[in-house]
Amino acid sequence: MKLPLYFLFLFLPFIAFSQEPVTPLIHFDNVEAANAIITLEKAYNVKISYPNKLIDGKTVSLEEKKRTLNETLDELSSLLNIHFKIINQRYIVVNKAEEETFNYQQLNTVIINEYLTRGISKNMDATYKIQPKQLDILPGLIEADVLVSLQELPGVISPNETATGLSVRGGTPDQNHIIWDGITMYHSGHLFGMISSFNPNITQNITFYNKGTNPRFGERISSVVDISTSNDITEKINMGFGFNGISADAFFETPIIPNKLSVLVAYRKSYENLFETNTFKKMEQKVFQNSSILDNETSEENFHFKDYNVKLNYKLNSNNTLSGSLIHIDNDLLHDYQDFNNNIFYQDYIDTENNGYSLNWNKNWNSNVKQTTKVSFSDYMLQYDFVTEEDNTQLSKFDKENKIRDFDFSTELSLHNTLSLGYQTSFKHVGYSFVETTDSPIVLDQNDSKINTHALFANYSNRQSKSFNFDIGMRANYYRQLNTLRLEPRLLIVKNINDNLKIQASGEIKNQVIYQIDETVYSDLSLENKLWRLSDGKEAPILNSNHLSLGALYHKNGWSFDFDSYYKKVTGISSLPLGFYNEDDTKYLKGEQNIYGLDFYTKKDFKSIKTWISYSINQIDARFDGINNNRYFTASNEIAHAISASISYKTKKLQVALGWKWHTGKPYTLSTVNPNDDDVSLVGVNTERLPNYHRLDLSSVYNFWFSKKSDIKGKVGLSIWNLYNQKNHLSREYTGNNIADDPVVIQDYYSLNLTPNFLFRMYW
Asked: What sequence ranges are listed for the domain Protein FecR C-terminal (predicted)?
């Protein structure tokens, strides 16, 4: 019998355990950098020399684990923005990071080291950096879900309570550019978006842009979520496996050629076909609302998901490194139900996959000139089939398909770590179709299009002044099939008022030619009803965003304050993605949005307790030709006010976090029902608002060693989502065309009920 891959992972620790080198146990919790270096000198029997000015006032936190010397130095280099140069086995010197670093990117000085908690920092270039392996516990999470973790940041919210439904400063989820090891991802969630499809146990860094985006990034008008695994050559075997209330996973990392070549393999899979937990049941109930799965008592469904990753890192020499990455994401649902009265059998099948491949080459020409070259390919496929049978004879079949082939090549030169110049080309082939078959196939709707984009970009970063820093850049996109050139200037300014107070201002223009629309042909299952399509420059215009922001940051004595105001002008949007009713739902109505917002965050650290609270204001005014008499109205994705608060407690082994979220309800269009014929009529556009949303989340984890002499570390955790079981009304939607054969149907969607989750993990 063929043994599943995830069972093989269970035996890997025992095969490789004897090869694991003995390393010191290193743990820092907000320790002064000078004291941390003293600890390292004793632990590794080395001598570290450093200029005091490089580490004065800096603190460091490292998760308790056994590390080699190089692993510890690599982590401290990233946290402290310094470079450790090993002279010999005994002596190490510390230099400025920009003098020695191989990374060609601009020096990314940390402004706030522990923004919400350990493992999250805010940087000089206005980015947020999240390190899942270092991340302390967040409310409601027992593992650092890549996309859910972002929702703790000010101005980021998921109104539909999913991992993938990220709304960043009033944007929509498809306006976020999600990248995994250089690969553009088009499917980023498991269980229809409830959890992210990126394994947090192998994720090294998440860099999040919500303003002042570096011009090397294009393609989306809202945010950039740049996710990466480690590019370092591992010196020893690392492995781990575990399970929670939804899935089980394992990873294995080992050197193949010492100091030259290493490989990382990871696998994750749901196990509800073996045992369905209460956690999985609660998520299913939320996901399958208003679908035929819950509406039919005779329904049977078989749902599972999986993802796996392979990463190779190769060091040719001191000036050249290569890395290759592979990711596979797969979600499958088979749903059967039967009408026994008429002996009719129905079957739904959904298969959603995203495969990605990338190759990255870093070249150090000399101390002042660096180059990086990337090639990637993303392959996305959504396939939905609905079959009707009577007496084992097929009566009809409905097929929906959406495919994307995305090839990307880029190369970038960095000069003196201040000026970068680059070129990027991408080729996208996107198509969708709806086909109904009775006696013969009938194409209900289809689209097939291609766009080849060429882009030149440049960025200059000034980090020389202690009081004034800036980034200024430009990106030029040429869309060949549309014969259109778009320029995208980018600007970020940071003014240091004093050591504790900084003023930030930014401006950027972005364009987007691939986005999601609501399906033009309604399917009964009501799942995965978003389709990717390309702009044609006419009925489906290019999305354009002009984004300005102004804010301030203050950090002193354990207090942190972050205030940011912004304005966005978005043009080229269509009526279909907005979710409000349109009598002619196959007609694209061009429109625009004005988005105004304010994000505020404050945090106070005590010895073992961290507290923070954030507040966001968001106003989205939308206007479309032919709707609401061409007047502005409230967009359906507006969350006018949102509050998030948390308190956490941490000891050496135990972490507990409690968090509360509140926000105003989403706008919706009022409906009235005719008592004579039950016809639904719609009044105005988004003139009403759903009740306010609120919930309380709790999470806790406990870390332990299996024995004092063992290298095996364990973790157990428990979380409760929606602790007081609040029933929140998430959205109200309408389907149908309001005609005799297809009347308008009201669909209400509600939040996740009280949902516990658990975790057990072992790793070396």
From this structure: 26-93
Closest CA to 266 of 234, 311, 236, 225: 311
Per-residue pLDDT of 55-90, as tens digits, reads 877 888 887 778 888 888 888 887 887 888 887 777
List Cβ neighbours of 87 (8 Å cut-off, separation of 6 or more): 93
Q: Read off the tokens for 620.
A: 């989205």
DSSP at 569: E
CA 286 to CA 93: how far, in whole Å?
A: 56
Distance CA 227, CA 206 (A): 5
The C-alpha atoms of residue 488 and residue 510 are separated, in whole angstroms, by 6
Decide: 80 and 122 in contact? Cβ < 8 Å. Answer: no
Please count the other Cβ atoms lying within 10 Å of the Cβ belonging to residue 265. 20
Cα 45 → chain centroid: 41
CB 434 within 8 A of CB 450: no
> Could you read off the pLDDT of 323-344 as tens digits, one per residue?
999 999 999 999 888 877 778 8
Query: How many other CB atoms sit within 10 Å of the CB of residue 684?
Result: 11
pTM as predicted: 0.87
- Residue among 143, 136, 330, 351 nearest 246 (CA): 143
| Domains contained in the chain, CATH given | 17-101 (3.55.50.30), 146-763 (2.40.170.20)
Structure tokens at 546: 């002009």
E runs forming strands in 497-640: 501-512, 514-518, 530-534, 543-556, 559-574, 590-605, 609-624, 633-634
493-507 residues labelled b (16+ CB within 10 A) or e (exposed)? bbebeeeeebebbbb
33-44 and 69-80 helices cross at what angle (nearest 10)? 170
- What letter does residue 739 receive in the DSSP assignment? B
* Share in percent of the chain as helix, strand, coil (round to 5): 10, 55, 35
| Whole-number Å distance between alpha carbons of 23 and 496 | 42
